[in-house]
Amino acid sequence: MDKVFSNKRDIAIFVGPTLLLFFGIVLIPIFVSSYYSLLEWNGVTKPTFIGLDNYVEMFTDSRALNSMKNSLLYAGASVFIQLPISLLLALILASGIKGEGFYRTVYFIPVLLSTVVIAQLWSKIYNADYGMLNTLLTNIGLPHLAQDWLGQRETALAASFIPTLWQYVGYHMLLMYAGAKSVSPELIEAAKIDGASTIRTAFSIVIPLMKPILKVSLVFSVIGALKIFDLIYVLTGGGPFFTTEVPSTLMYTTIFDTYRYGYGSALSVFIILECLLFTVIINKFFKTDY
Amino acid sequence: MEAAISGQPRKSKLFYRIGMILLQAMLVLFAVVQIYPLIWLAFFSLKDNSEIFSGDVLGPPKQFLWSNYTKALSDGNVLTYFINSVWVTAVTIFLVLLLSSMSAYAITRMKWRFSNATMTLILLGMMVPIHAALLPLFMVLRNLKLLNTHWALIIPYVAFGLPLAIFILASFFKGVPREMEESAVMDGCGIYRTFFFIVLPLVRPALVTVAIFTFLSSWNELMFAVTFINDTIYQTLTVGIMSMVGTYITQWGIIGAGLMISTIPTIIIYLLLNKQVQESMIAGAVKG
Questions:
Q1: Which among B74, B76, B139, B185 has most CB atoms closer than 10 A?
Q2: What is the ipTM of this complex?
């Protein structure tokens, strides 16, 4: 028996291709990127080793710092706007309201769409002249609010965040719904018998027991915001005047438009480290026992 | 205390009713917000320019202009993009299922020294953003002359899809009773027959979960697709749609049709497998 399950050749056939791909495509490129980040290099001529100069530039260049600030604002908005809405919806649906399955299904639909489609759709919604939003505002008697949402500095960042909110609110709602449903009904029943109101029960019983899933949502929304690319790339390309630029779009233009391979790689290394750092911080401050 | 409660049952019942109605109204409103943009997209994909820009902007089309769809499919190349997306996604799903199930099985059920270390390493891979690999992969694919081929997308999609797939499958394999495999081996099955014909059918739900996950991520991926492919005949929907939008910049109807065509397969899958899709998204998140 053991012989069949410990044959070295078979094991190699079972895991070999996976490990080859995993090392070649996922793991080694990270180290290669880290090495590139120490070079001044345009991809054609001979690279020069410049040590940490790219990183120094990154933290002194106002454009790079601005992109980091924007992605942190996205993360903040995700945590303080998107997650509370998701939590509220999840708690309402999990309390067994009529039509629970229907709402869950409908809220989740945008999660499945490709970000390219969402970005194109929202650029039409925001269109200054014929878009859905301005038409709607005019129809409900607020024509003075109609404006070029993506085209001006004041509104571009907020307007480019809304589609992300719209897309992922259903995803976090679903996770939290699953978390709320896993709380034992007897506990909720017991709290009710003790005279606790619905809101009190939610805050003292249900939400604390949802902590593991809340942590997952928190990590996902923060990391998702820090590495956001598709939406910005398609919706605004980082404009107008870099007001919506984020590290990943800056990385992309640095590498493929201005051919600064070293500096672009430094930005990509920054994104990885930033994601890791935030994951560790959230895990540390949000300790769960299981 | 009891008197206080029983003193106003009618009033509190009324309040409860009103509260419920308000709650339902809020949920319906939110449902409209989530779904109406898509309906609006479907509407304008069937309108001509004059109706989009000056007619009833928010409402349904007066006449269904199906020619937007035929124009998008043929002149806008959406049919080509669609076939490319189907091919890339199908091969990716097949390879992810094959490789992840084999390696998850080897890690959880076969006896070798580095199985735990391998699992840890692969789980670490779930945290790596694809940004990290973009430039090195671009250089490698260029040197191998693989840019502008379907493999330029399939290989990275498979590699980045493996960690999560292995994680999901490994937890399922752990639940398969050992006796099943042992009796199969006793009966003279080799490891391959045991794996493919006895064990794999037992973890079918997990395979469906992995397939759904892989479908969504490779069907919707943009960063690799836009970097590794610039030849129209190999472009997938995500990039193709972008170049189509560039061509038909003022003809919203045709753009809308293209967007609808790239969305419809996902929506159909969701409506057919709605429960499994939701469960697979939860399974993908709960990695502890």
A1: B76
A2: 0.92
DSSP annotation of A151: T
Asked whether the beta carbons of residue A19 and residue B185 sit closer than 8 angstroms, the reply is no
Conformational region of residue A40, where left means phi above 0, alpha means psi within -120 to 50, and beta covers everything else: beta
Across the interface, whether the CB atoms of B118 and A15 are under 8 A apart is answered: yes
To the nearest whole Å, the CA of B46 is away from the closest chain A CA by 15
Query: Are B132 and A30 in contact, with CB atoms under 8 Å apart?
Result: yes
Going along chain A from its start, the domains and CATH numbers come out as: 62-285 (1.10.3720.10)
Q: How far apart are CA A135 and CA B151, in angstroms?
A: 45
3-state helix, strand, coil in chain A (%, to 5): 75, 0, 25
Distance CA A277, CA A272 (A): 9
* B152-180: pLDDT as tens digits: 999 999 999 999 999 999 989 988 888 88
By mean pLDDT, which of A26-30, A165-169, B128-132 is the weakest? B128-132
Half-sphere exposure of A109 (CA within 13 A, CB side): 24
Q: Give the integer Cα–Cα distance in Å for A138 and A252.
A: 38
Helix (H, G, I), strand (E, B) or coil at A194: coil
Please check whether residue A15 is in contact with residue B106, taking contact to mean a CB–CB distance below 8 angstroms.
yes
Does residue B250 sit in helix, strand or coil? coil
Backbone angles phi, psi at A157, to 5 degrees: -65, -45
| Cβ proximity of A43 and A260 under 8 Å | no
- Test the A interface: residue of B110, B121, B146 with most A CBs within 10 Å: B110
Report residue A277 as tokens. Answer: 């750092």
Torsions phi, psi of A39, nearest 5? -115, 150
Task: Look up the pTM and report it.
Answer: 0.92
Which residues of chain A does B102 touch, with a Cβ-Cβ cutoff of 8 Å? Answer: 13-15, 17-18
Distance CA A234, CA A120 (A): 7
Quote the DSSP letter at residue B177: -
Question: In this complex, how many residue pairs, one in chain A and one in chain B, have their CB atoms less than 8 Å apart?
Answer: 247
* Cβ partners under 8 Å of residue B153, min gap 6: B88, B92, B218, B221, B224, B225, B228, B229, B236
